[in-house]
Amino acid sequence: MVRIIDPKLCVRCKGRLWCGLPKCPILEQKRVMETSTPNTTDISAPTPPAVFISWKNYPRVEAAPMETTQFVSIADNPKAWRDLEIDEIVSIRSSLIRPTIRADVYSAANPTDAILTIQELAMSKRPVAVEAVLEKIPKPKLEFGQFVAPMGPKAPAKKIAPQENPRVDRRVEKYYYDEVKAEDAIISLFERGYDVYQLSRVLSAGVLGIPRNRKLVPTRWAITATDDIIYRKEIAKIKQQEPISEFRIYEGHRFDNHFYIMFMPDVWGFELMEAWAPGSVWYSGNEPYLLNDWEGYEGRRGYADNVGGSYYAARIAVIEHLLRERRQARVVIFREVHEGYYIPLGVWQVRENVRAALESKPEKFESLNDAFDYIRPKLRIPLERWTSKSELIKERQNQKRLTEWF
After folding, report:
1. Exposed end of the chain (fewer CB within 10 Å): N or C?
2. Cis before 49 (ω within 30)
3. pLDDT digits 0-9 by tens, 212-225
4. Do 13 and 53 fall within a single domain?
């Protein structure tokens, strides 16, 4: 649920921040869009490369490259946004223009010229200049969502054509022509060092999979699907490793999102707990709201409905870390979302926050209680509320250990 602000308050306030937000969303959106929306139907600009496939009206979706004349090298690179402020990220993303076409998702198997262009752009290793002729001038509008980063204006396109030949990634191109399942291609590329952002882009554009079965995949679905595919294929390697020998706490703090990541010396398990403060982007209640999703050693059977895509983004960051360390652990993440997170940035910020935290040096402890003593004063929500919510912590506290019998 998006935070609801009384329009009458906005009329009286006129940008004086009576709502409690650090910046006025109305004025900020107006400022950004006035400076970034082109006043023309002819767009000639590079794509980073970046593509977008919508989910509304599935299976008849909107497909588009995303073009920008600014920030080309970082416009679709979440790794480069870690140290930026929210308004800086919004400015970068608002510069991306989407010349959209309507397409059936199954057209990826027998692509039209426009879909083939989008697929080639998705496979490119470097920015590509693209010409687009729009049916109308784009409206100055920003789009936000739970899964994807903010996006700038869009308009239907009469024409989309590259102005130069894309420099296609040969390893990705190999899978475009091969009879290889999408899952197998993603795992092979991941193990060769490709990041989840590259992989979700080519999956979304319908580049991977058995050629006759290929589909365009809405971007928001492709992000979570990529995280989940890698997890399901790589978790077996982690389960073959020895558990860590101590309790650890890693910390990450960006965009007024605060992550405390607890590693416990045990076999694999994962839980993401979130506490949303009143006034944060998705929550308009009066008291902090806690929710969680989790899995034990055998994994999950259904979608993480409570936490959603953040669960898979955080989990893949943990998986990457354990693969590098060649160990396994039971992991519980405490995520506190405070009022300063006033615009949704997408699940990438969860992934990057957890990645950054796991790159830092952890605090280590001999017991769960010692770890609790460390984390308790750092949390805004009382620790007891967290532990009563956590399935894995309750299991750890109630489970008899083999060493207790000796």
Report:
1. C
2. yes
3. 999 999 999 999 99
4. no
Residue 59 lies in a domain: yes
- Rounded to whole angstroms, how far apart are CA atoms 288 and 344? 18
Claim to verify: residue 31 and residue 43 sit in the same structural domain: no
pLDDT in tens, 57-69: 999 999 999 999 8
Same domain, 82 and 213: yes
**pTM of the prediction?**
0.89
Query: Distance between the two ends of the chain, CA-based, in angstroms?
Result: 51
| Chain centroid to CA 60 | 24
Question: Pick from 210, 233, 256: which residue ends a domain?
Answer: 233
19 and 135 share one domain: no
Q: Decide if 141 is inside a domain.
A: yes
Same domain, 305 and 196: no
Q: By CB neighbour count within 10 A (0-12 exposed, 13-18 middle, 19+ buried), where does 69 fall?
A: middle
Closest alpha carbon to 249 in 129, 372, 114, 147: 372
Side chain identity, residue 37: T
How many domains does the structure of the chain reveal?
3
Calpha distance 112→109 (Å, rounded): 10
Domain that holds residue 300: 247-400
Range scoring the smallest mean pLDDT among 24-33, 276-285, 345-354, 382-391:
24-33
d(CA 81, CA 337): 18
Cα gap 162→201, rounded to integer Å: 18
Kindly state whether residues 27 and 42 are assigned to the same domain: no
Buried b vs exposed e over 308-338: b needs ≥16 C-beta within 10 Å?
bbbbbbbbbbbbbbbbeeebbbbbbbbbbbb
Which tokens hold the place of 70?
A: 């600014």
Regarding whether 50 and 23 lie in a shared domain, the answer is no
